[in-house]
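hey
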C-alpha cells in the first residue's frame, strides 16, 4: 500500500514523521523495537508504562509524537488512543506492528474509535533471513 510506513535501516519513515529532535512518548515499547527505529536515539524520548500514563504525565512531557505497540501486555492501541484523548493529546499516535494481512482495516478501525488523533501504523520489517 502506498500509505504504509515500514521501518528499515535505509528509510525509517515515509512521509513526515522523522523522530530526530522530537519529543516522543514511548508507551511500553520494548528495547528491541526501539533499536529498530533509526533516529529514535536522537529524539527527546520518555519511556513509560501504559498504566502510568495520565493527564499530568502527558502535560509534563508534552509529546510531539506517541509510539506504542499495536498490542501490548494488557492493552491495545485503542486503549492507548482513548487514554491519550482523555488526557487532551491530539497529536500523532503511531502503532508499531509486524506486517498484517489488512493494514487498511486496522487503520480504519482505530481511526474510527480514536477520532481526533493523527493515527497510523509503523510496520516493522521482518529481519532478513541469514541462511543458517
Amino acid at each position: 500500500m502506498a500509505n504504509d510506513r515500514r521501518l528499515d535501516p535505509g528509510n525509517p519513515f515515509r512521509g513526515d514523521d522523522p523522530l530526530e529532535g522530537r519529543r516522543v512518548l514511548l508507551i511500553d515499547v520494548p528495547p528491541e523495537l526501539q533499536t529498530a527505529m533509526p533516529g529514535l536515539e536522537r529524539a527527546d524520548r520518555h519511556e513509560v508504562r501504559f498504566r502510568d500514563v495520565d493527564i499530568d504525565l502527558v502535560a509534563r512531557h508534552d509529546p510531539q509524537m506517541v509510539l506504542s505497540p499495536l498490542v501490548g501486555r494488557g492493552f491495545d492501541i485503542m486503549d492507548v488512543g482513548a487514554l491519550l484523548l482523555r488526557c487532551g493529546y491530539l497529536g500523532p499516535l503511531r502503532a508499531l506492528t509486524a506486517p498484517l494481512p489488512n493494514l487498511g482495516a486496522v487503520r480504519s478501525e482505530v481511526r474510527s474509535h480514536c477520532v481526533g488523533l493523527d493515527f497510523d501504523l509503523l510496520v516493522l520489517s521482518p529481519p532478513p533471513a541469514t541462511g543458517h
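Confidence is low (pLDDT under 50) at residues 1-16. The first helix runs from residue 31 to 34.
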